[in-house]
Design brief:
This protein has about 240 residues and is an alpha/beta fold. It has seven helices and six strands, in the order H-H-E-H-E-H-E-H-H-E-E-E-H. Bound molecules: iron/sulfur cluster.
Length: about 240
Amino acid sequence: MVPGPTVNPPRVREATGELREDLARASRSLEAASPADVIRWAVDRYGGRLTMATAFGPEGCLIIHWLAAIAPGTHVFNLETGYQFPETLALRDRIAARYGIEVALERPETTVEDYERTHGGPIYRVDPDRCCGDRKLAVVTRVLTGFDAWMSGIRRDQSPDRAAAPIVGWDHKFGVVKVSPLANWTKAQVWDVIVREQVPYNPLHDKGYVSIGCQPCTRAVAAAEDERAGRWSGTAKTECGLHSR
Ligand code: SF4
């Protein structure tokens, strides 16, 4: 472990039992809805209090594709840790050009240079949980204080951690409502629409990178490997912590 204060999300809002029941009912009724209809539901219900987080994965790009037609003014943000691939950052500009949606790059308080200088080198090598905590979770916590609901592109079949993700539910970690329009979709369904609608995507996907995060913690995978096998490869870590309970 890297010494120093651990980054814990500040105390978050709690949902009333009534709100949780309301969200559970909504989630059940949205199971059969299309992702675009789920997005419409979220936009109608939360309006300007809705945001979306994206790492510019195929799911996020697809949600932006629909969002551009439904509510292009919706706030969308990316966690710019300072460690992302140039291809990922270039995709942000391609999306802006195609849809007019300027994804906000939300950065940690310290630059990579200052962060590594303070800690005597890259923290991702010795304590990736700490690094994700500082450069991702703390940033999401800060951004979400200004919103009541956030959308993400997670799918249930991506990992055991995500297998029970509702379409809509209370996010205990951040104290907001979480909407996952693609929770019950498969990777094949996502790519089918991306190809058909010519949605911009990260060119690294054509080079064997299936799930793409920060450059030091991502590798290409072989065809037979799990789609998230290239994330924090060689360690027990499987999630950055944003989507785990
Ligand atoms: S994915 Fe790697 S580099 Fe990015 S924040 Fe997490 S540990 Fe740090």
